[in-house]
Amino acid sequence: MTGLLPYGRQSVTDDDVAAVVAALRSDWLTTGPQVTAFEADLAGWTGGAGVAAVSNGTAALHVAYAAAGVGPGDEVIVPPMTFVATASSAVALGAQVVFADVEPETFTLDPAAVSAATTGRTRVVAAVDYAGHPADYDALRAAGGDTLLLADAAHSIGARYRGRPVGSLADLTTFSFFPTKNLTTAEGGAVAALDGELLTRARRFRNIGLVRERDEQRWPDEGGWHQEVHEFGLNYRLPDVLCALGRSQLRRLDDFLARRARLVARYDAALADLPGVLTPGRRAWAEPAWHLYPIRVLDGRRREVYDRMRAAGIGVQVNYIPAHWHPAFADLGYRRGSCPVAEAFYAEQLSLPLFPDLSDADQDRVVDALAAALRGAPARPAAA
Fold first, then answer.
1. Domain 14-250, what fold?
2. Cα atoms found within 13 Å of the Cα of residue 293, Cβ hemisphere only
3. C-alpha 108 chain-centroid distance
4. DSSP of 151-169
5. Homologous superfamily, domain 253-375
6. CA of 266: how far to CAs of 111, 250, 363, in Å?
7. Which of 32, 120, 192, 372 could pair with 46 as two cysteines, CB 3.0-4.6 Å apart?
8. pLDDT tens-digit readout, 161-199
9. Residue 181 appears among annotated catalytic residues
10. What integer pLDDT is reported at residue 351 of this predicted model?
Protein backbone atom coordinates (compact mmCIF):
# COMPACT_ATOMS: atom_id res chain seq x y z
CA MET A 1 0.00 0.00 0.00
CA THR A 2 1.41 3.37 -1.00
CA GLY A 3 0.37 6.65 0.56
CA LEU A 4 -2.47 7.47 2.91
CA LEU A 5 -5.43 5.12 3.12
CA PRO A 6 -8.34 7.60 2.90
CA TYR A 7 -11.38 7.62 5.15
CA GLY A 8 -13.62 7.71 2.07
CA ARG A 9 -13.17 7.14 -1.65
CA GLN A 10 -15.31 6.95 -4.80
CA SER A 11 -15.79 3.69 -6.70
CA VAL A 12 -15.71 4.33 -10.46
CA THR A 13 -15.96 1.53 -13.02
CA ASP A 14 -15.63 1.27 -16.79
CA ASP A 15 -19.46 1.37 -16.99
CA ASP A 16 -19.43 4.74 -15.20
CA VAL A 17 -16.82 6.07 -17.62
CA ALA A 18 -18.79 4.78 -20.61
CA ALA A 19 -21.96 6.50 -19.35
CA VAL A 20 -20.12 9.82 -19.07
CA VAL A 21 -18.53 9.43 -22.52
CA ALA A 22 -21.93 8.68 -24.05
CA ALA A 23 -23.34 11.86 -22.52
CA LEU A 24 -20.37 13.87 -23.80
CA ARG A 25 -21.03 12.57 -27.31
CA SER A 26 -24.74 13.34 -27.15
CA ASP A 27 -26.52 16.54 -28.15
CA TRP A 28 -27.07 17.49 -24.49
CA LEU A 29 -24.35 18.37 -22.01
CA THR A 30 -26.79 20.03 -19.61
CA THR A 31 -30.57 20.60 -19.13
CA GLY A 32 -31.23 17.48 -21.19
CA PRO A 33 -32.71 13.98 -20.90
CA GLN A 34 -30.13 12.58 -18.48
CA VAL A 35 -31.25 15.10 -15.86
CA THR A 36 -34.89 14.06 -15.91
CA ALA A 37 -33.89 10.39 -16.11
CA PHE A 38 -31.59 10.74 -13.08
CA GLU A 39 -34.37 12.45 -11.13
CA ALA A 40 -36.73 9.61 -12.03
CA ASP A 41 -34.15 7.02 -10.99
CA LEU A 42 -33.62 8.79 -7.67
CA ALA A 43 -37.38 8.81 -7.06
CA GLY A 44 -37.15 5.02 -7.01
CA TRP A 45 -35.10 5.38 -3.82
CA THR A 46 -37.26 8.05 -2.16
CA GLY A 47 -40.54 6.20 -2.02
CA GLY A 48 -41.73 8.11 -5.09
CA ALA A 49 -41.09 11.62 -3.74
CA GLY A 50 -40.32 14.01 -6.59
CA VAL A 51 -36.69 15.00 -7.04
CA ALA A 52 -34.77 18.04 -8.30
CA ALA A 53 -31.10 17.38 -9.13
CA VAL A 54 -28.73 20.21 -8.18
CA SER A 55 -25.05 21.06 -8.43
CA ASN A 56 -23.91 19.94 -4.94
CA GLY A 57 -25.10 19.10 -1.45
CA THR A 58 -24.82 22.66 -0.15
CA ALA A 59 -26.88 23.87 -3.10
CA ALA A 60 -29.47 21.22 -2.20
CA LEU A 61 -29.81 22.72 1.27
CA HIS A 62 -30.03 26.27 -0.09
CA VAL A 63 -32.66 25.20 -2.63
CA ALA A 64 -34.68 23.31 -0.01
CA TYR A 65 -34.70 26.24 2.43
CA ALA A 66 -35.68 28.58 -0.41
CA ALA A 67 -38.49 26.23 -1.45
CA ALA A 68 -39.69 26.27 2.16
CA GLY A 69 -39.88 30.07 2.02
CA VAL A 70 -37.14 30.63 4.60
CA GLY A 71 -36.23 34.31 4.96
CA PRO A 72 -35.50 37.15 7.37
CA GLY A 73 -37.33 36.80 10.67
CA ASP A 74 -37.54 33.01 10.43
CA GLU A 75 -35.82 30.51 12.70
CA VAL A 76 -34.37 27.20 11.51
CA ILE A 77 -33.54 24.52 14.07
CA VAL A 78 -30.34 22.61 13.24
CA PRO A 79 -28.18 20.08 15.13
CA PRO A 80 -24.55 21.14 15.61
CA MET A 81 -23.17 17.70 14.71
CA THR A 82 -23.13 18.32 10.96
CA PHE A 83 -21.14 19.95 8.22
CA VAL A 84 -21.56 23.72 8.57
CA ALA A 85 -23.58 24.05 5.34
CA THR A 86 -26.71 22.66 7.04
CA ALA A 87 -26.75 25.88 9.05
CA SER A 88 -24.96 28.41 6.83
CA SER A 89 -27.28 27.92 3.86
CA ALA A 90 -30.22 28.99 6.05
CA VAL A 91 -28.26 32.04 7.23
CA ALA A 92 -27.63 32.91 3.57
CA LEU A 93 -31.41 33.39 3.19
CA GLY A 94 -31.58 35.68 6.22
CA ALA A 95 -32.81 33.17 8.78
CA GLN A 96 -31.63 32.82 12.35
CA VAL A 97 -30.26 29.37 13.14
CA VAL A 98 -31.19 27.82 16.48
CA PHE A 99 -28.89 24.96 17.43
CA ALA A 100 -30.56 22.06 19.26
CA ASP A 101 -28.59 19.23 20.83
CA VAL A 102 -28.36 15.64 19.65
CA GLU A 103 -29.26 12.26 21.15
CA PRO A 104 -26.42 10.44 22.95
CA GLU A 105 -26.70 7.13 21.04
CA THR A 106 -27.03 8.15 17.39
CA PHE A 107 -25.95 11.83 17.61
CA THR A 108 -28.94 12.80 15.49
CA LEU A 109 -31.27 15.66 16.40
CA ASP A 110 -32.93 15.21 19.81
CA PRO A 111 -36.73 15.59 19.59
CA ALA A 112 -36.86 16.90 23.17
CA ALA A 113 -34.36 19.61 22.29
CA VAL A 114 -36.45 20.51 19.23
CA SER A 115 -39.59 20.79 21.32
CA ALA A 116 -37.80 23.17 23.70
CA ALA A 117 -36.38 25.26 20.84
CA THR A 118 -39.53 25.59 18.71
CA THR A 119 -41.20 29.01 18.73
CA GLY A 120 -43.75 30.86 16.66
CA ARG A 121 -40.92 31.96 14.39
CA THR A 122 -39.67 28.44 13.61
CA ARG A 123 -40.00 27.83 9.87
CA VAL A 124 -38.01 24.59 9.44
CA VAL A 125 -36.67 21.81 11.65
CA ALA A 126 -33.62 20.38 9.87
CA ALA A 127 -32.56 16.89 10.98
CA VAL A 128 -29.26 15.31 9.92
CA ASP A 129 -28.86 11.58 9.36
CA TYR A 130 -25.44 11.51 10.98
CA ALA A 131 -23.10 8.81 9.60
CA GLY A 132 -26.03 7.39 7.60
CA HIS A 133 -28.28 6.61 10.60
CA PRO A 134 -31.75 8.13 10.16
CA ALA A 135 -32.97 10.60 12.76
CA ASP A 136 -36.18 9.78 14.65
CA TYR A 137 -38.54 11.42 12.17
CA ASP A 138 -41.85 10.49 13.78
CA ALA A 139 -40.72 11.97 17.09
CA LEU A 140 -39.33 15.06 15.34
CA ARG A 141 -42.66 15.65 13.58
CA ALA A 142 -44.45 15.50 16.90
CA ALA A 143 -41.89 17.84 18.49
CA GLY A 144 -42.03 20.46 15.73
CA GLY A 145 -45.78 20.51 15.33
CA ASP A 146 -46.84 22.10 12.04
CA THR A 147 -43.30 23.25 11.23
CA LEU A 148 -41.80 22.01 7.96
CA LEU A 149 -39.44 19.08 8.51
CA LEU A 150 -36.25 18.82 6.44
CA ALA A 151 -33.98 15.77 6.31
CA ASP A 152 -30.34 16.45 5.54
CA ALA A 153 -29.68 12.99 4.10
CA ALA A 154 -26.23 13.72 2.70
CA HIS A 155 -25.05 10.53 4.46
CA SER A 156 -28.07 8.30 4.14
CA ILE A 157 -29.42 7.65 0.65
CA GLY A 158 -30.70 4.08 0.70
CA ALA A 159 -31.25 4.00 4.46
CA ARG A 160 -34.62 3.11 5.95
CA TYR A 161 -36.54 4.29 9.02
CA ARG A 162 -39.17 1.92 10.40
CA GLY A 163 -39.24 0.25 6.99
CA ARG A 164 -39.70 3.52 5.07
CA PRO A 165 -37.02 4.91 2.75
CA VAL A 166 -35.12 8.10 3.45
CA GLY A 167 -36.60 10.68 1.09
CA SER A 168 -40.17 9.87 2.12
CA LEU A 169 -39.83 10.80 5.81
CA ALA A 170 -39.67 14.62 5.77
CA ASP A 171 -41.36 17.37 3.77
CA LEU A 172 -38.02 18.08 2.11
CA THR A 173 -34.95 15.87 1.88
CA THR A 174 -31.50 16.83 0.62
CA PHE A 175 -28.80 14.53 -0.74
CA SER A 176 -25.11 14.94 -1.52
CA PHE A 177 -23.18 13.06 -4.19
CA PHE A 178 -19.66 14.19 -3.27
CA PRO A 179 -16.99 11.51 -4.01
CA THR A 180 -16.84 10.26 -0.40
CA LYS A 181 -20.62 9.76 -0.21
CA ASN A 182 -22.58 6.56 -0.86
CA LEU A 183 -22.74 7.31 -4.58
CA THR A 184 -21.13 10.08 -6.57
CA THR A 185 -21.71 12.46 -9.46
CA ALA A 186 -18.28 14.07 -8.75
CA GLU A 187 -20.05 17.13 -7.36
CA GLY A 188 -23.81 17.02 -7.10
CA GLY A 189 -26.87 16.78 -4.93
CA ALA A 190 -30.64 16.58 -5.01
CA VAL A 191 -33.78 17.78 -3.25
CA ALA A 192 -36.74 15.45 -2.74
CA ALA A 193 -40.16 16.88 -1.87
CA LEU A 194 -43.39 15.19 -0.84
CA ASP A 195 -45.49 18.18 -1.92
CA GLY A 196 -45.74 19.14 -5.60
CA GLU A 197 -45.68 22.86 -4.89
CA LEU A 198 -42.46 22.54 -2.88
CA LEU A 199 -40.92 20.53 -5.71
CA THR A 200 -41.88 23.19 -8.26
CA ARG A 201 -40.36 25.91 -6.08
CA ALA A 202 -37.17 23.86 -5.71
CA ARG A 203 -36.86 23.25 -9.45
CA ARG A 204 -37.40 26.90 -10.23
CA PHE A 205 -34.95 28.16 -7.63
CA ARG A 206 -32.19 25.87 -8.99
CA ASN A 207 -32.87 27.27 -12.49
CA ILE A 208 -32.62 31.05 -11.89
CA GLY A 209 -36.29 31.18 -10.93
CA LEU A 210 -37.39 30.91 -14.56
CA VAL A 211 -41.10 30.32 -15.26
CA ARG A 212 -41.62 28.78 -18.69
CA GLU A 213 -45.16 27.44 -18.23
CA ARG A 214 -47.42 29.75 -20.28
CA ASP A 215 -50.42 29.29 -18.00
CA GLU A 216 -48.39 30.71 -15.09
CA GLN A 217 -46.78 33.65 -16.88
CA ARG A 218 -47.98 37.21 -16.52
CA TRP A 219 -47.41 37.96 -20.20
CA PRO A 220 -47.86 34.60 -21.91
CA ASP A 221 -48.40 36.00 -25.42
CA GLU A 222 -45.00 37.67 -25.72
CA GLY A 223 -43.63 34.94 -28.00
CA GLY A 224 -42.33 31.40 -28.10
CA TRP A 225 -39.03 32.51 -26.55
CA HIS A 226 -40.65 34.07 -23.52
CA GLN A 227 -39.67 33.21 -19.94
CA GLU A 228 -40.18 35.11 -16.70
CA VAL A 229 -38.64 35.32 -13.23
CA HIS A 230 -41.28 35.73 -10.54
CA GLU A 231 -38.96 34.96 -7.59
CA PHE A 232 -35.18 35.17 -7.68
CA GLY A 233 -33.24 31.93 -7.94
CA LEU A 234 -29.72 30.77 -8.74
CA ASN A 235 -28.03 28.51 -11.26
CA TYR A 236 -27.70 25.27 -9.31
CA ARG A 237 -28.25 22.93 -12.28
CA LEU A 238 -26.53 19.53 -12.42
CA PRO A 239 -25.40 18.83 -16.02
CA ASP A 240 -26.31 15.76 -18.06
CA VAL A 241 -22.72 14.53 -18.01
CA LEU A 242 -22.77 14.23 -14.21
CA CYS A 243 -26.34 12.91 -14.14
CA ALA A 244 -25.21 10.12 -16.48
CA LEU A 245 -22.52 9.22 -13.94
CA GLY A 246 -25.12 9.30 -11.17
CA ARG A 247 -27.48 6.99 -13.07
CA SER A 248 -24.67 4.49 -13.56
CA GLN A 249 -23.71 4.70 -9.88
CA LEU A 250 -27.31 4.19 -8.76
CA ARG A 251 -27.32 0.78 -10.44
CA ARG A 252 -24.71 -0.29 -7.88
CA LEU A 253 -26.11 1.47 -4.83
CA ASP A 254 -27.50 -1.78 -3.38
CA ASP A 255 -24.04 -3.32 -3.70
CA PHE A 256 -22.40 -0.24 -2.17
CA LEU A 257 -24.75 -0.37 0.82
CA ALA A 258 -24.28 -4.10 1.32
CA ARG A 259 -20.48 -3.80 1.27
CA ARG A 260 -20.56 -0.91 3.74
CA ALA A 261 -22.78 -2.98 6.04
CA ARG A 262 -20.33 -5.91 5.87
CA LEU A 263 -17.40 -3.63 6.68
CA VAL A 264 -19.31 -2.15 9.62
CA ALA A 265 -20.03 -5.65 10.94
CA ARG A 266 -16.32 -6.50 10.67
CA TYR A 267 -15.35 -3.31 12.53
CA ASP A 268 -17.96 -4.02 15.21
CA ALA A 269 -16.56 -7.50 15.79
CA ALA A 270 -12.91 -6.45 15.73
CA LEU A 271 -13.36 -3.50 18.08
CA ALA A 272 -15.90 -4.99 20.49
CA ASP A 273 -13.30 -5.81 23.16
CA LEU A 274 -10.73 -3.11 22.38
CA PRO A 275 -10.27 -0.95 25.50
CA GLY A 276 -10.49 2.79 25.10
CA VAL A 277 -12.98 2.99 22.22
CA LEU A 278 -16.74 2.83 21.75
CA THR A 279 -18.30 1.68 18.47
CA PRO A 280 -21.27 3.48 16.84
CA GLY A 281 -24.73 3.10 18.35
CA ARG A 282 -27.84 2.37 16.35
CA ARG A 283 -31.57 1.96 16.92
CA ALA A 284 -33.50 -1.24 16.25
CA TRP A 285 -35.86 0.60 13.88
CA ALA A 286 -33.06 1.88 11.63
CA GLU A 287 -31.35 0.40 8.57
CA PRO A 288 -28.43 2.83 8.27
CA ALA A 289 -26.58 3.55 5.04
CA TRP A 290 -23.23 3.85 6.92
CA HIS A 291 -21.49 6.71 5.18
CA LEU A 292 -19.13 6.96 8.19
CA TYR A 293 -17.87 4.60 10.87
CA PRO A 294 -17.55 7.01 13.82
CA ILE A 295 -15.84 5.57 16.88
CA ARG A 296 -15.35 7.38 20.19
CA VAL A 297 -11.82 7.49 21.59
CA LEU A 298 -12.05 7.73 25.37
CA ASP A 299 -9.90 9.28 28.12
CA GLY A 300 -9.01 12.42 26.19
CA ARG A 301 -6.83 10.53 23.72
CA ARG A 302 -8.57 11.41 20.42
CA ARG A 303 -5.84 13.84 19.23
CA GLU A 304 -3.05 11.41 20.15
CA VAL A 305 -4.75 8.52 18.35
CA TYR A 306 -5.52 10.69 15.32
CA ASP A 307 -1.87 11.76 15.02
CA ARG A 308 -0.52 8.22 15.49
CA MET A 309 -2.88 6.72 12.91
CA ARG A 310 -2.14 9.45 10.37
CA ALA A 311 1.58 8.84 10.88
CA ALA A 312 0.90 5.14 10.19
CA GLY A 313 -0.76 6.00 6.87
CA ILE A 314 -4.38 5.62 8.01
CA GLY A 315 -6.51 8.57 6.88
CA VAL A 316 -8.81 8.88 9.88
CA GLN A 317 -10.99 12.00 10.01
CA VAL A 318 -13.05 13.98 12.51
CA ASN A 319 -16.70 14.57 11.55
CA TYR A 320 -17.52 17.27 12.57
CA ILE A 321 -16.47 20.42 14.36
CA PRO A 322 -19.74 21.49 16.06
CA ALA A 323 -21.26 23.98 13.63
CA HIS A 324 -21.79 26.67 16.25
CA TRP A 325 -18.05 26.64 17.08
CA HIS A 326 -17.08 28.04 13.68
CA PRO A 327 -15.89 31.65 13.96
CA ALA A 328 -18.66 32.82 11.62
CA PHE A 329 -21.24 31.66 14.19
CA ALA A 330 -19.14 32.65 17.20
CA ASP A 331 -19.03 36.19 15.78
CA LEU A 332 -22.84 36.16 15.74
CA GLY A 333 -22.93 35.39 19.46
CA TYR A 334 -23.20 31.59 19.49
CA ARG A 335 -21.29 30.11 22.41
CA ARG A 336 -19.61 26.84 23.30
CA GLY A 337 -21.37 24.84 25.96
CA SER A 338 -24.84 25.31 24.52
CA CYS A 339 -25.07 21.75 23.11
CA PRO A 340 -23.21 19.57 25.62
CA VAL A 341 -24.00 16.16 24.08
CA ALA A 342 -22.73 17.15 20.64
CA GLU A 343 -19.69 18.89 22.10
CA ALA A 344 -18.73 15.91 24.27
CA PHE A 345 -19.10 13.62 21.25
CA TYR A 346 -16.90 15.87 19.13
CA ALA A 347 -14.12 15.64 21.73
CA GLU A 348 -14.02 11.85 21.25
CA GLN A 349 -15.16 11.28 17.64
CA LEU A 350 -12.92 9.68 15.02
CA SER A 351 -14.03 8.31 11.64
CA LEU A 352 -12.26 5.16 10.46
CA PRO A 353 -11.85 4.44 6.73
CA LEU A 354 -15.08 3.15 5.19
CA PHE A 355 -15.82 2.83 1.48
CA PRO A 356 -16.99 -0.03 -0.81
CA ASP A 357 -13.57 -0.79 -2.30
CA LEU A 358 -11.87 -1.00 1.12
CA SER A 359 -10.39 -4.51 1.22
CA ASP A 360 -10.62 -6.78 4.23
CA ALA A 361 -6.82 -6.67 4.43
CA ASP A 362 -6.75 -2.88 4.52
CA GLN A 363 -9.52 -2.86 7.11
CA ASP A 364 -7.47 -5.26 9.25
CA ARG A 365 -4.57 -2.82 8.88
CA VAL A 366 -6.80 -0.03 10.20
CA VAL A 367 -7.78 -2.12 13.22
CA ASP A 368 -4.14 -3.02 13.93
CA ALA A 369 -3.07 0.63 13.67
CA LEU A 370 -5.85 1.68 16.04
CA ALA A 371 -4.86 -0.95 18.58
CA ALA A 372 -1.22 0.12 18.34
CA ALA A 373 -2.15 3.79 18.73
CA LEU A 374 -4.16 3.01 21.85
CA ARG A 375 -1.24 1.04 23.29
CA GLY A 376 0.96 4.06 22.66
CA ALA A 377 3.20 2.04 20.36
CA PRO A 378 5.34 3.92 17.84
CA ALA A 379 3.47 4.53 14.61
CA ARG A 380 4.54 2.32 11.71
CA PRO A 381 4.32 4.23 8.43
CA ALA A 382 2.73 2.73 5.35
CA ALA A 383 5.03 0.73 3.06
CA ALA A 384 6.53 2.75 0.23
1. Aspartate Aminotransferase; domain 2 (3.40.640)
2. 26
3. 12
4. EE-TT-TT-EETTEETTSS
5. Aspartate Aminotransferase, domain 1 (3.90.1150.10)
6. 31, 25, 8
7. 192
8. 999 999 999 999 999 999 999 999 999 999 999 999 999
9. yes
10. 98
